[in-house]
Amino acid sequence: MLRRRQPPLLTLRPSPLLPPPLLLAPPPQSQQPPDLQSGKRSGGAFLYCKRFLQHYRIMKVKFRDCYEEWAENQILHAQTLQRVISADVDIKQAVERELQRYKTYYTVSMVPSKALHVSKIMMPAWKPPLENAVMWLGEWRPSALLSFVLLCHDTHAISLPPHHVGFVKELVRISHINERILDDELADCQVMSGSFPALFVGPAREEFVACVGKNLERMKSVVAKAQRVRFEAVEALVERLLTWKNAALFFVLLARFQHRFHGAAISRMSNLGDV
Question: Domain extents for the chain?
Fold first, then answer.
């Protein structure tokens, strides 16, 4: 089956009047987990399965802990930013620290380093079903984060100049295009994996397993790109459109909204009970 060539992701640069975006350095290589395939050479299928399940549980706990630490710190940092805004001192430094925290979370902590991590990011078990239903590859859509600023502007929580409103709308349009590109890449992976019958024996089975592994690697790349596009959406807002005070307000309002939405999703799940 021929694979479609996907167009490159667009840069979040809506107008030549805006300064160029900062070039992001590639994320540092995280410590690689143990080679799961080594079980085949040093103990057979049983040891391989044992190491696989151990690593699966370790990574599930790792990503859950990263998310819980992120969510807890998000509220604490929002309270700190609110005090900084009220005092009107050191707003720039506080916003830069918060932006760096977003960068670490999206481009380092929650990026899969192995193919088996993909499911943990795409459908996180630590989020309730209602929250997962509106997520895109495990997190908020970049276009949704940008549209949140327009919502804040419409409700007079954040004041934007008229020409900046147009720039934000252009960023939303570019983000929609990037999301569709990544959706197409993900769909290609699913089509290639589903082009084989479920059960094979002999060489055909090895071909099927190799194809699934290859497509999981491609899905891992798609998830990493999605996390990077999310951060670039926030970075474009903070560094090229919003004032430092408005950027601080954006982080505060976004943290409150996400915290309340998460709480409402948990409450809804508890009201429904077990199915």
Answer: 38-272
